[in-house]
Amino acid sequence: MDFGLSRQQEMLKQAARQFAETRVGPRVREADEGGDFPFDLVQQMGQMGFIGLVNSREYGGSAMGHLARIIVIEEMARVYPSLGFFFQAGNLLMYALENFGNEEQKGRCLPALCKGTKVSAFAVTEQSGGSDPSAMMTMASRNQTGYVVNGRKTYITNADVADLLGFVARSEGGFSAFFVEKGTPGFEVTRREPRAGFRCIPVNELSFTDCHVPPANLIGQEGRGMAAALPTISAIGRTGAAGVALGATQGAYEGALKFCRERVLYGKPISDLQALQFMLVEMNTDIEAARWIAYRPAVLLDQGKTVKDLGVEIARAKLLTVDVALRHCLKAQQAMGAYGQSPEYRVEMYLRAMLELLTAGGTQEIMKVVIGRAITG
Q1: Contact 296, 302 (CB under 8 A)
Q2: What are phi and psi of 197, to 5 degrees?
Q3: Which residues contact 103 (CB under 8 A, 6 or more apart)?
Q4: Structural contact between residues 257 and 282, judged by C-beta atoms closer than 8 angstroms
Q5: Residue 340 DSSP SS3
Q6: 284 phi, psi to nearest 5 deg
Q7: Which residues pair with 297 in a beta bridge?
Q8: Collapsed DSSP state (helix, strand, coil) of residue 357
Q9: Domains parsed from the chain with CATH numbers
Q10: In this structure, are residues 363 and 131 in contact, taking their beta carbons and an 8 Å threshold?
Q11: Distance CA 108, CA 360 (A)
Q12: Residues in CB range of 247: below 8 A, 6 or more apart
């Protein structure tokens, strides 16, 4: 399959790289240590058209597609994985509304989300588990004016900064998908989870206590919430995680390569040492292989393949890119010795971030279950 980028995609890649290096790069250490969500950078990304790449022009997006989205995520994560990870969660509700919402919902919500003037989150995981969505206990009970929601969600990315929150709850006939606005009575974002990586992106618990949700906020059909949530998690969450892993590994590799070229030992750069050359070769080769695996489902989605058709391709992309990232971010640290532990060089930040991707969008073991069921029939 030819992944040659179009002129438009090449221009997008260059614009994203320039933005990441000039506007994001100088703030990485401050943002990671402070942990504050970068609202201004998100708004700037919205103004440049980076956020609504898979959304239609009618509702404020650019309709450039899934490969364009992965390209932008990769470039952001190459400099600061946290900002790449924003897309992994921030695009979920946008995709669900675009593909399963009605015209009124799209017109009401999507333009502001595409512009970055509002932020969204999507909540499925509960304490009963995220790998088995059918075990969720949050309940949406129907009454004369809509739905009354009670329950809790946990490990929800962007929850504390989200203006709109999509979620799935039990209802008549199965599970239903909804969204609520920030400040809705009975909806509360509670504790922020301490995290090793992605420190400026909040991950929270949240609760619903007799929270009234109007019928106008039902996404798709009642009882068909999983039909909206599962494709969304696959097409956006898992491909997004693959893009973040790819970009972070590239950033760690480039950092290690630069260090090895400049670090002199025994009278010559340590990049001349064969042991280190072999480490850098392995990183370079695996990154190129991972890029093909990560780009493939995005290209196929843009060509009209369904998420159902590409479940294995997407799972494979997430599984491989995260495994590659963990191996080679650690290898980059080893190549740099004690300097690899210094925040000044960012390599330790890449490794911390990759630990978070082990569960984002589904654990690595769940990816193996998806692939295993397909190949064993």
Answers
A1: no
A2: -125, 180
A3: none
A4: no
A5: helix
A6: -60, -45
A7: none
A8: coil
A9: 7-115 (1.10.540.10), 120-223 (2.40.110.10), 226-376 (1.20.140.10)
A10: yes
A11: 28
A12: 73, 74, 75, 76, 77, 78, 81, 84
Cα Rg for the chain, rounded, in angstroms? 21
Phi, psi of 291 (to 5 degrees): -65, -40
CA distance 222 to 6: 41
Angle at 56 between CA 50 and CA 57, to 5 degrees: 80
The token pair at 333 is 């640290």
Backbone φ and ψ of 304, nearest 5°: 105, 0
332-355 in b/e burial notation, b at 16+ Cβ within 10 A? bbebbeebbeeeebbbbbbbbbbb
Task: Find where tokens 């650690």 sit.
Answer: 330
Residue 25 CB: number of other CB atoms within 10 A?
14
| pLDDT tens track, the chain, 377 positions | 456 799 999 999 999 999 999 999 999 999 999 999 999 999 999 999 999 999 999 999 999 999 999 999 999 999 999 999 999 899 999 999 999 999 999 999 999 999 999 999 999 999 886 677 778 999 999 999 999 999 999 999 999 999 999 999 999 889 999 999 999 999 999 999 998 899 999 999 999 999 999 999 999 999 999 999 999 999 999 999 999 999 999 999 999 999 999 999 889 999 999 999 999 999 999 999 999 999 999 999 999 999 999 999 999 999 999 999 999 999 999 999 999 888 888 899 999 999 999 999 999 999 999 999 999 97
CA distance 252 to 286: 13
Place of tokens 């969720």: 136
